[in-house]
Structures are given as C-alpha cells and as structure tokens.
Design brief:
This protein has 224 residues and is an alpha/beta fold. It has 6 helices and 10 strands. β1, α3 and β2 form a beta-alpha-beta unit. It is globular. It binds S-adenosylmethionine (SAM). S-adenosylmethionine (SAM) binds next to α1. S-adenosylmethionine binds next to α1.
Length: 224
C-alpha cells in the first residue's frame, strides 16, 4: 500500500501506530488501549448516537485501527453498513486480514465525495506525541469539520479530559476541555451531548443533525 500525504503533525503518530500494530497485533494493545474493557466502553458511549430500532444506517469509523468496532456493532445488533478509515496503512492491512470478506470496507484514504449517515471516532485525537498543543488542536478542529462534512445524520468522537488531575497528565497526550468543546460544537448543531460520566477521564461528544424524538400520528413522542 502506498503512503498517503498527511499533515506533518500526524507523521510521527502514523509511525508510532505502525510499529505498535506490528509488535502487538490486532489487539487493544496494538492500538494503544490498556485493555478490551476500556476500548469497549468507549464504543458503547459512541454508539448512543445510533438509532435504537431496526433502522439501517451507514457509519464511517474514523481512525478505525484494526476494525474492532465492526464486530462490536454486529454483536450488539446494529443494522449498519460499516466503513473504516485510518491514516496508518499497516492498521488497514491488519483490519483487512482480520475481517475477510470486508476488505473493501477498510481504506487508508478518504473519498471526499462519499457521505455516511454517521461518522464516529474513538481514540484518534489523543496521542499527540511531541506535537505543539496548538498545532494539534488546529488539526482536531479540521478533523471535526471533516466528520461534519462526511455525515448526514450526526457524528461523535472522544477525547481525554482536561479535568484529569494535573499530576496524572502526560505531555505526549492531548486533553480537551469538555466545557469548551460543548460550547464550540454549537456551530455544527444545537443537538449536542457531552458525556463525562463513565469514569475513564475521557469524554464523548455526540452531535445530532436530526431530532432524537419523533412525534407519532397519535401524538406520542418516540426516541429514534
Ligand atoms: C487509539 S487507536 C484506536 C483505534 C480504534 N478506533 C479502536 O478504538 O480500536 C487510534 C487510531 O487512530 C489512527 N489515527 C491517528 N490519527 C489519525 C488521523 N489524523 N486520521 C485518521 N486516523 C488516525 C491511528 O492510526 C490509530 O489506528
């Protein structure tokens, strides 16, 4: 696979993840999660964005790693058409090997003309390594703009929380201020949730472009 041109701040990140997946294989450790439980809790929080019923939808997993979200969605009964994107070609190769029959769903480049009902991102904005925090934050907002452009019904992502105790923070990680993110998400939609209640010093932002409740002809309000 050829290497795609990416913003300079992501080049060391791509090298880091390329080495990690080579040494740890398609496991939580291979995408720098401490364990399956903490990877899965983040998926569960992001999946609150999706319809609860049988409605089918398409989803792009931005920074998909080896595609761990795909079996999670299947195991939890979501009827969706899944696609994964990652800047790290070795992650994409690993995802394709792990999910035979779904190889074409995993890509190391984005098609700017393609749209999805939802776009979700777990963990791809936190490891900044030596990048300057301001330069990193600019790229985060570019990615959020991209998730907005690519999604028709909504998008969601997680970030490490700046509310973490100062002595537990690491220089090579980026921590976002949940209140600031909530305030700034207004530009995308007023239907926004910031979830900071799952004990991982992490928060999830969910942006809906469609109402969460629909009114039935009988006058009942149903959650989609
Ligand atoms: C912490 S891992 C999480 C992988 C997967 N989302 C999961 O939870 O299992 C972060 C992933 O994001 C990818 N990534 C980092 N920066 C990215 C960017 N700017 N665009 C796309 N993918 C990126 C990395 O290559 C890595 O596979």
């Amino acid at each position: 696979m050829t290497t795609t041109a990416i913003p300079a701040v992501f080049a060391p990140v791509r090298t880091f993840f390329s080495r990690l997946i080579a040494s740890e294989g398609p496991t939580p450790a291979g995408v720098d999660w401490p364990d399956t439980a903490r990877q899965t809790i983040r998926f569960r929080e992001l999946c609150r964005l999706f319809p609860l019923g049988k409605e089918e939808f398409s989803v792009l997993d931005y920074g998909c790693g080896y595609g761990a979200l795909l079996p999670y969605l299947q195991a939890n009964g979501f009827s969706c058409n899944y696609f994964g994107f990652d800047i790290c070609e070795d992650m994409i190769l690993s995802a394709r090997r792990l999910h035979p029959g779904s190889e074409k769903r995993f890509q190391a480049a984005l098609d700017p003309t393609q749209q999805f009902d939802f776009v979700v991102l777990s963990g791809a904005l936190s490891l900044k390594l030596a990048a300057d925090p301001r330069a990193w934050e600019e790229e985060i907002w570019r990615i959020i703009d991209t998730m907005d452009r690519l999604s028709t019904k909504g998008f969601g992502f997680n970030l490490l929380s700046a509310w973490r105790e100062p002595d537990r923070k690491k220089d090579f990680l980026y921590y976002g201020d949940p209140a600031e993110f909530l305030r700034k998400m207004w530009r995308y939609s007023p239907n926004v949730a910031v979830l900071h209640d799952y004990d991982l010093w992490d928060f999830t932002v969910l942006v809906r472009k469609e109402p969460l409740y629909i009114k039935t002809p009988e006058g009942h309000w149903l959650r989609k």
